[in-house]
Amino acid sequence: MTTTSIDTLRSEVAALIVEALNLDVQPQGIDPQAPLYGDGLGLDSIDMLEIALVVSKRYGFQLKSDNENNQQIFASLQALTEHIAAHRTQ
Amino acid sequence: MSGLPLVGGRGPGDILAWRPQGPVSVARYCADALALAAALPPGRYIVNLCEDRYHYAVLLAACALSGRVSLQPSSQSEATLRQLACTYAGALAVTDASTPLPAELPAHPLPALQELAGQPGADVPHIAPDTLVAILFTSGSTGMPQPHAKTWGKLVANGRAEAQALGLLDAPHTLVGTVPAQHSYGFESTFLLALHGGCSFWSGKPFYPQDLADALAAVPHPAMVVTTPYHLASVLASGVALPPVARWLSATAPLDVPLAAQAEAATGAPVHEIYGSTESSQLATRRTAAGAEWTLMPGVRLEQQGDTTWASGGHVEGRVALADILALHEDGRFTLQGRHADMVNLAGKRTSLAYLNHQLRTIPGVQDGAFFLPDEEEAARAGRLVAFAVAPAGERAALLAALRTRIDPIFMPRPLVLVEAIARNATGKIARSTLEALHERWIRNAR
Predict the structure, then answer these.
(1) Following CA atoms A35, A37, A38, A41 in sequence, which dihedral angle do they give, to the nearest 10 degrees?
(2) Which are the contacts of B54, defined by CB distance < 8 A and separation ≥ 6?
(3) How far apart, in whole angstroms, are the C-alpha atoms of residue B33 and residue B358?
(4) Contacts of A63 in chain B (CB under 8 A)
(5) Nearest by CB to A64, which of B210, B231, B404?
(6) What was the ipTM of the complex prediction?
(7) pLDDT tens across B337-383, in order?
(8) What single-letter DSSP state applies at residue A61?
(9) Are B238 and A62 in contact (CB < 8 Å)?
(10) Rounded distance, CA B367 to CA B390, Å?
(11) Which of A24, A34, B38, B357 has its CA at a distance of 20 to 30 angstroms from the CA of residue B337?
């Protein structure tokens, strides 16, 4: 995937998260490198389940937490976007 | 031999746990527990942070067999762990590899069990019934976690009572839990139910719907999924194709009847619920779609004084006041009428608004503050808390960061709204109507 298309996808994912979780931040205000979980955006496990649902509906694949490592996929908006880019089927 | 067995009602060759590496027999489990008991560093208190359910189970047994006590805080916030370190001198956290070591407590990585090489013996070890085995915690209103001690005899009775209530004693199931073993519901329904209710358990903790499908594909059937309304709703909404499920078990938050009916229709499996609390242990069960009445577990008694209900008998430790308002029926069953106003229960974690308010108000720079749980209809997302704070010099991000070190993430406010003042009435209390008005004003301004 080119840098431009990753950037486009990242904006789309940010908007999807803000809308799904009804966060009171602007999508472009999310730091791509900051953790989504805990200290960064402050998401929790319920949020991750909700994101998993919208991601599966929008991008056509199921998130899996191999080795229970949710933190890795949700390490940052950038990490989540790259995960989606690598696994999307639609 | 005196005492009650570590694993009840089964032979040494029976399977207790299923891991990705293969099945684990009762004898292997006992050997692993005895070997770990001998390898643990000295000290009476162990905070069991293991995420792998088999690791958790071996560590808990190792503690019980060596006179140690398993501490199981409901939150792993920095403040809670620091509090444990102060209250329980010498407390040590034990973790498996995937868990980060907490900075607030001395920590010890779980030794590799295959290297301890415990040799399976012929007998299942026994533990005296009055042995203090675990302390579970609820958040007290002043910020001090409240301990709830659990003795071995009651825990054994607990596992058996649940199995009897769910009809599992003669029909053992494989338990696949989406909930952690450390919290009271997971502790009882994935660990005690396996040890003393004739069941076996899957070592993993599936999180996403696809994880659950994979776990169900890896275990023998019939399988019971031990889960929460959140996970159940998420699995159904995902449309992921699941291997057969024989039964669903839900607890930690009320399960909607339509959701239970939808789960039964989609999977052909009955959905049962557990009622209980960390203080009282589990008390009753019902099949959600079959009616609102709860049936008490064997031996448990309820009595009422005013609108307070007390539980005792059976596996209940002492006499415990319940946080809910109950209507008792003549046939011994009961229905829930509501909750005492201060309690909040989200995704399996219970706390009180008083506790959350205390944490918010003691952040430096916060002059006043209050948490608020909006009614379902007006909340943007069900079950999410809102908080209002008066902090003239405060920056919202800094306040949120401070709050995050004090409370469980699940209770973090969405949103935290900075206001100029929160009106208090003549007795110095903040009325719910005041918070409702602030909330309405925030919604209007936000749109």
Answers:
(1) 70
(2) B17, B19, B24, B203
(3) 41
(4) 208, 210
(5) B210
(6) 0.73
(7) 876 667 777 766 778 888 888 889 889 899 899 999 887 655 556 66
(8) -
(9) yes
(10) 5
(11) B357
